[in-house]
Amino acid sequence: MSGPAPGDPVLSTSGxxxxxxxxxxxSDVNFRVERGSITALIGPxxxxxxxxxxxxxxxxxxxxxIMTFSPEPGRSIQLRKLxxxxxxxxxxxxxxxxxxxxxxxxxxxxxxxxxxSRMKAGLLGALxxxxxxxxxxxxMAEFSYRLLERYGLAASANHVAKNLPYGAQxxxxxxxxxxxxxxxxxxxxxxxxLNIAETRELDELIxxxxxxxxLSILLIEHDMSLVMxxxxxxxxxxxxxxxxxxxxAEIRRDPKVVKAYLGED
Amino acid sequence: MAQDTQExxxxxxxxxxxxxxxxxxxxxxxxxxxAALSAVWFSVLALPLVVFRINSAxxxxxxxxxxxxxxxxxxxxxxxxxxxxxxxxxxxxxxxAVVEAGGPPPEGARGPEGSWLxxxxxxxxxxxxxxxxxLLLLSIPFWAxxxxxxxxxxxxxxxxxxxxxNIVVGVAGLLNLGYAAFFAVGAYTFALLHANxxxxxxxxxxxxxxxxxxxxxxxxxPILRLSGDYLAIVTLGFAExxxxxxxxxxxxxxxxGIRNIPPPSLLGIDLNGSVKPLLVPRGLLHADMDLNxxxxxxxxxxxxxxxxxxxFRLENSRLGRAWLALREDEVACQAMGINRTRAxxxxxxLGSTWAGLAGVVFASQITFINPQSFTFLTSVMVLSIVVxxxxxxxxxxxxxxxxxxLLPEYLREFSDYRMxxxxxxxxxxMVFRPQGIIPSTRRVYxxxxxxxxxxxxxxxxPPEGARP
Amino acid sequence: xxxxLNLCVSGLTKGSIYALxxxxxxxxxxxxxxxxxxxxxxxxxxxxxxxxxxxxxxALGLSGWGLLLACGLLAAxxxxxxxxxxxxxAYKPLRGQSRLAPLISAIGMSIFLQNxxxxxxxxxxLAYPDLIPPLPFAGALSGVATKSQVAIVAxxxxxxxxxxxxxxxxxxxxxxxxxxQDPTMARLSGVNIDRVISSTFVIGSVFAAVGGLLIGCxxxxxxxxxxxxxxxxxxxxxxxxxxxxxxxxxxxxxxxxFSESFAAGYVSSDYEDVVAFVLLILILTLRPDGIMGSxxxxxx
Lengths: 265, 468, 300
Prior knowledge:
The structure holds three protein chains of three kinds.
Chain A: E1 9-20, E2 23-34, E3 38-42, H1 49-56, E4 64-69, E5 77-78, H2 84-90, E6 92-94, H3 107-114, H4 123-128, H5 131-150, H6 166-178, E7 184-188, H7 196-213, E8 216-220, H8 224-230, E9 233-238, E10 241-246, H9 248-253, H10 255-262
Parallel strand pairs in A: 3-8, 3-9, 6-7, 7-8
Antiparallel strand pairs in A: 1-2, 1-4, 4-5, 9-10
Chain B: H1 20-51, E1 52-55, E2 60-63, H2 67-100, H3 123-143, H4 146-171, H5 179-197, H6 201-223, H7 228-248, H8 271-279, H9 291-315, H10 318-328, H11 330-335, H12 340-366, H13 376-389, H14 394-410, H15 418-432
Antiparallel strand pairs in B: 1-2
Chain C: H1 2-32, H2 39-59, H3 64-91, H4 100-120, E1 126-127, H5 147-169, H6 171-181, H7 183-188, H8 193-219, E2 221-222, H9 226-241, H10 246-267, H11 272-286
Antiparallel strand pairs in C: 1-2
Helix pairs in contact in C: 1-5, 1-8, 1-9, 1-10, 2-3, 2-4, 2-8, 2-9, 3-8, 5-6, 5-8, 6-8, 9-10, 9-11, 10-11
């Protein structure tokens, strides 16, 4: 296990604030994901977790704050003001809370779309289908197939994505995100809708992804047993404010966290 | 016809022993009652418009009661059919829902639904059909009448238009309701360049395509951050602007249009003067055939072949997959690193290119154009072709064009009902078969084991759900 | 100065007609997020049925206010029936499908209705009688506004007041507001969504019928194509004001009416119809949510 290397964050934010109209959805969020770690972001419903993801991935533009992404040690990029597709190309990939697969494409094609930014063929290449384009197509199809194989989805490579069982759809979304070759993978409630056995599989899958692909993972999750078991550190968001952070064992005992979840007595 | 059918999915009646025929009889009775009710409803609905006909000559109303029984009968039969079909669609939707909820996925990736027509996709059969089709198309001018050739040229022009619009609507999911504007730009580019600079067909073919592409880019850049309905309305409005400009601007000669647009030239040979006398006596050509038309036929046939090849290659390329992803889910598409605006723009502009090409050929075929040829109805016609045939499906679009262009030509007595039927087809297709006559199918990738013999073993998760 | 005044009056009149049609678009869009493309055709059918009933009832000896009210009422009832049937056939079976499907179905319905009227009646222009009886106070406005212009503005104002009261004061109005806010929650709270949608189509169609009758009396002629252009412009007005918003539709319609009127008066009447479409493209690109619309954030 590579374990987090302290002091080398793959992502750090400072003062991220998001205001919708008069509503402050995120307030001064300072956040760090250490390289190679699995970091979890938890909090009650409506705490602003998905909003934070949407800021990181460029779907929203935060009202204030800095978000620094470091794809490899010694290189850092400001994410604010970048378009979502640019952020993906830099190495931040994500999944969605409600699965957003390309439903009428096949499983393999879903992954191939994920390879988009690593391919070069343009309009002319597509029309002429020269040797370079053909080689690229073949290499990427092969790469995608192996990725599917690695994650146990190869048998349904030619199935239309919407016909997959729910659990496999969640898994395919992760594989599709991996196809973009991210340095940081954002998982938005990956256990939502899974049963206990599937959640256990997911636990294993998340660790496997980190080991095998050598990347860092930031996950939003409601399932506490999953969070406590899989993550190296946990941040707690409540009403757009970070109220606690630390290793899972500490978070579990933190009175502020308990209060946010159970309400005041 | 106006009942809540699709919500009352056919629930099998409680099993009462020996009562099966009675319940079937009762159901039939219910259906007949609903149909009768709807016949009454439509009779009342149609009363003022269908029966009370304004006679503008006498300034009075003619009471055409004779129309009523026919209308009621038609409504009765239509309701029975409608309810029957709706029930069947309801069934298949339930089945699909079961599959989506985790039932066994169907074999292969045969598109959303299989159909007997998708048998065309089987490779050997497909090749044989393709070859036979190509032979038939190539031979037409040598045995058919001039009229058939003219109709076929129109059909091929609409196939080109349909395939072009298919890139925009079927593949990229951008509803363009102003496609006629780009068609008009192609035609007018040729007409104007010929009238003013004396340029010929071959010089104007690329220029017309270029002009349409540029217009597509010009319109695309400001509007492509809109999506769905708004995009559709803006393209419609834009096409109306183009048409009104063509009507009102001086140099296009307004509603009177431009005449004497020449046919394409074949190396300067006078086809009717020198080649025709060689073919006609040998029985190879109809005596009244205009060889210039024959040449146009071959030109547009070549353009269609080229278009099919291009669209097919595009669909299975990086760019094509980006368009498909865009159609499926814009947010997820961006999350894959695809530049949404650029993908939309290329689809939109490239779709316009083919409208421009078709426009040049169209102008050269009918030799006279005016804005009347490029109204909203033209756009609707092309859209109907794509919708009827199957959005995103190349053979579908071709069948759609053949049905919608050729059928009205051969069913002359129905020509008054042509647009009425188009409208009806669009509604009926959307309700009962939104995927079209030949639904698009996705490419199946086949892997031979030696292709990835080097895959590291023991480095993979077991298949989903395979563990205890 | 007189030209200016005349242009203002004609702008106000046009705007009022657009508003009557735009309401149907905006209400339907507010409830089910569908552009009811065939709505312009309902307006055209309103004009035709009113004309037909005026001739039929006129032959029976009815005249004056009695005739106008009877025609208006019958046209409204028929348009309501057409609107209701339209929704059941072309839109209801498509609920829950992709967004393209209902839109294409709507376009199909629009073409169908246009050609249906053309086939069973006539493709040519029909002369329209002036059904509006002399107004007692219109004399004061002579030279500035015609009788039918006064009638159009007055009828539109009354309709708007009635609609506002309906939406604010009745149970169905409340249900409509609930459905447009959040259909799922509304259903869970016991709102019958189907009834709300049907009512929306019925109400929009009634306003379109009023508009059709009045425009016939003002322009003194109709044909089966008039619904398409009027519908497009009314939709533009609805978007201009912020689609889904009832006061927005009125304001957008007035802006469009005035712009067209001034463009025709001061620039060239050839380009009168271009104004609407240019405005449409400008608004949608610069401010897609319209003047009164609220910015909506994309849910991910």
